[in-house]
Design a protein that fits this description.
Layout (H helix, E strand, L loop, with lengths): L5 E6 L7 H16 L9 E6 L4 E6 L10 H14 L1 E2 L2 E5 H8 L5 E11 L9 E4 L9 E5 L7 H12 L8
Parallel strand pairs: 1-2, 1-7, 6-7, 6-8
Antiparallel strand pairs: 2-3, 3-5, 4-5
Helix pairs in contact: 1-2, 1-4
């Protein structure tokens, strides 16, 4: 993928009773992965995999007119779900993202409580971050974000800060 340096991928469980929480988590994850103080990250891709073999793909290169408030973002997400695609946001079959998910061109970071502390690792270049599941690929490392109480959007913020060259420190 040209110009994409960061890819965040995670699974999300949906039920008829948790749809409101799911929408909040999707919006917060888009904001955490793509927003800068003055613009969008145009080198970042977010993939949210659902239970029914469908994924929401959010591409910072093409996302236009995105507003981070819940109501506007929710409207854009629902529009993408109904139409199948809006600029930068579209639904794809999970099988269509498998080649990307295991792409050997990228360094894979697997966030797992059994991994090495993130603060002890040096940020790699092109990166795919697997936030809540494991994959078996050659160029990979398991890292932990302790304490293990962070939400997906908080993990994305911490990893973006680390990849940007920021300091990651906690006891």
């Amino acid at each position: 993928m040209s110009c994409i340096n960061r890819i965040f991928i995670f699974n999300i469980k949906t039920t008829s009773t948790n749809i409101k929480n799911v929408i909040h988590e999707i919006v917060d994850s888009i904001n955490a992965s793509l927003l800068l103080s003055h613009s969008l990250r145009n080198d970042t891709l977010l993939i949210i995999k659902f239970d029914d073999e469908v994924a929401l793909k959010v591409d910072g290169r093409f996302l236009k007119g995105y507003r981070p408030d819940l109501q506007s973002a929710k409207g854009l997400i629902l529009k993408a779900i109904v139409k199948g695609r809006v600029k930068g946001l579209w639904l794809v079959k999970e099988r269509d993202i498998k080649p990307l998910e295991y792409n050997e061109e990228y360094y894979h970071i697997i966030v797992d409580k059994t991994g090495k502390p993130l603060k002890n690792e040096k940020p790699p270049g092109k990166t795919i971050v697997h936030l809540n599941y494991n994959v078996e690929v050659k160029k990979s490392i398991k890292v932990s974000l302790t304490p293990n109480i962070y939400t997906i959007p908080q993990k994305i913020i911490i990893i973006n800060n680390w990849l940007d060259g920021g300091v990651v420190s906690w006891s």
